[in-house]
Prior knowledge:
Jelly Rolls, 9 strands, globular
Amino acid sequence: MRRRRLLGLTAAATAGAAAGCLGDGDAASDPDAAGDGDANEGDGSVDGGDGSDTGGDDGDDEPAWPTGTYADYETTTVTVEGPAGEDQGSVTAAIADNGKKRRLGLSDAASLPEDGGMLFVYDAPRDSLTYVMRRMSFGIDIVYVDGDREITRIHNAPGPGPNEDGEEQRYPGSGQYVLEVPYEWTDRHGVAVGDSLRFGL
């Protein structure tokens, strides 16, 4: 399996060949960071490709996301709420709530539909996370969210250029949740730092 997510530690850590997100501390102290026998496991926090296969264009009622590798993932509707409580947009997010799913990220997806995303969930807030665009062919937005579900940082992360693997594109932040959505989705929906997310887990 291709892996696009890499977990990162602090500035002293170098990203390995994994595809997930970790942070503040070393992998040995994080039960979710435990290896699954994959030689590509790493200790850094790196986010890779957020793409998703789209399906259901033949008129059936099947959802366009998640599909393929992610078809059996649990999902939640994530709605962004503005400062006055207004809904600014929502996506159906596949939930990545363990080390294996966070390392894989969306690396097996071909694209991400406008109403699709992935929600990375940690047991507790992390002070230091870094996501990268490892082997991505398209861009995404990376949204860091604290334990109170308030957005703390947003990155518009373009896809890597020709002959680039995306590992040099690093997007740091902190939080308990990370939401990945299509490129510039946050701009199109007027989403900003200080807005909050509403979702069920």
